[in-house]
């Protein structure tokens, strides 16, 4: 049984999105996930962290984004949290192609949903947003030789 | 992210090397927009051979440049897309809108002399 926990807190600046991706890629490597699965995890984390910076904190630096990774049994749990402005209508925000910015595609939640086994978004105006994503992986079976 | 630029008349070829996320997307947007506005570029060819990562921020900039060129009578073309990048693009529906080519030669060829 695998069990591990890592928390990364970082400033809400664009440069840090690639650091969040590096961390999830390393964890994915430890779990023997396929390269394709790792690619998908990187996209999902990238979207959640970008949302926290762009929407949660309205691209204002000097705020803190929390990335929490937990491995419990056969599940990788990724929590991305901001203490930003919050989302007034989570259901609407999660619709494909919904975006408050015409330069963006509104695909962030679509990618998170497609690439993860579970996606949960909790948000409260002026308090912040917490995105919880779960990915189940195959555990290396105990040798039966 | 590194950009290698090649201009030929009103066509700009950009070879992109690196990751296309919210950090690098704005650099790419500025690079293309200034060529369109200052040099009158009307065809933009993006070679994605050395792109290691793309997310919706990167895709948004590509779609945005397509939308900017369209009313100007211009075109955006994409070449040499690595398979894992293509998978993300496919999920976004981008290949239904933008023309993809196997390599730069094919992208240059199409529409030439027309």
From TrEMBL, chain A:
Pfam families referenced in this protein's UniProt entry, alphabetically: HATPase_c_2
Histidine kinase/HSP90-like ATPase domain ranges (all copies): 36-139
Keyword entries, A-Z: ATP-binding, Kinase, Nucleotide-binding, Serine/threonine-protein kinase, Sporulation, Transferase
GO MF terms, alphabetically ordered: ATP binding; protein serine kinase activity; protein serine/threonine kinase activity; sigma factor antagonist activity
SUPFAM superfamilies from the UniProt entry: ATPase domain of HSP90 chaperone/DNA topoisomerase II/histidine kinase (SSF55874)
Catalytic activity: L-seryl-[protein] + ATP = O-phospho-L-seryl-[protein] + ADP + H(+); L-threonyl-[protein] + ATP = O-phospho-L-threonyl-[protein] + ADP + H(+)
Any one GO BP annotation for this protein: sporulation resulting in formation of a cellular spore
E.C. code: 2.7.11.1
Family: Belongs to the anti-sigma-factor family.
PANTHER family for the chain: ANTI-SIGMA-F FACTOR RSBW, ANTI-SIGMA-F FACTOR RSBW-RELATED
Described purpose of this protein according to its UniProt entry: Binds to sigma F and blocks its ability to form an RNA polymerase holoenzyme (E-sigma F). Phosphorylates SpoIIAA on a serine residue. This phosphorylation may enable SpoIIAA to act as an anti-anti-sigma factor that counteracts SpoIIAB and thus releases sigma F from inhibition.
Protein name: Anti-sigma F factor
Organism: Desulfosporosinus lacus DSM 15449
Lineage: Bacteria, Bacillati, Bacillota, Clostridia, Eubacteriales
Protein encoded by which gene: spoIIAB
TrEMBL record, chain B:
Keyword Kinase: no
Protein name: Anti-sigma F factor antagonist
PANTHER family: ANTI-SIGMA FACTOR ANTAGONIST TM_1081-RELATED (PTHR33495:SF2), ANTI-SIGMA FACTOR ANTAGONIST TM_1081-RELATED-RELATED (PTHR33495)
Segments passing through the bilayer: none
Domain of life: Bacteria
Similarity remark: Belongs to the anti-sigma-factor antagonist family.
Keywords from the named record: Phosphoprotein, Sporulation
InterPro entries assigned: Anti-sigma_ant, Anti-sigma_F_ant, STAS_dom, STAS_dom_sf
Record Pfam families: STAS
The keyword Phosphoprotein is assigned to this record: yes
Source organism: Desulfosporosinus lacus DSM 15449
């Amino acid at each position: 049984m695998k069990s591990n926990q890592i928390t990364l807190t970082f400033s809400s600046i664009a440069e840090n999105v690639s650091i969040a991706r590096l961390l999830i890629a390393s964890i994915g490597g430890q779990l023997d996930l396929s390269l394709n699965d790792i690619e998908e995890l990187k996209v999902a984390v990238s979207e959640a962290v970008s949302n926290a910076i762009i929407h949660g904190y309205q691209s204002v630096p000097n705020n803190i984004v929390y990335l929490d990774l937990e491995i419990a049994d056969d599940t990788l749990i990724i929590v991305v949290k901001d203490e930003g402005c919050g989302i007034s209508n989570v259901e609407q925000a999660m619709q494909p192609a919904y975006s408050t910015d015409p330069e963006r595609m509104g695909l962030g939640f679509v990618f998170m949903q497609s690439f993860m086994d579970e996606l949960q978004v909790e948000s409260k105006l002026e308090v912040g947003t917490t995105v919880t994503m779960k990915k189940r992986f195959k555990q290396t079976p105990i040798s039966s030789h | 992210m590194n950009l290698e630029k090649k201009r030929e008349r009103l066509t700009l070829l950009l070879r992109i090397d690196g990751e296309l996320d919210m950090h690098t997307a704005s650099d790419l947007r500025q690079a293309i927009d200034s060529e369109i506005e200052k040099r009158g570029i009307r065809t933009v060819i993006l070679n994605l051979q050395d792109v290691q990562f793309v997310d919706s921020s990167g895709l948004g900039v590509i779609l945005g440049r397509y939308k900017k060129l369209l009313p100007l009578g211009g075109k955006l073309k994409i070449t040499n897309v690595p398979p894992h990048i293509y998978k993300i693009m496919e999920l976004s529906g981008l290949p239904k809108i933008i023309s993809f080519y196997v390599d730069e030669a094919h992208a240059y060829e199409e529409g030439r002399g027309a």
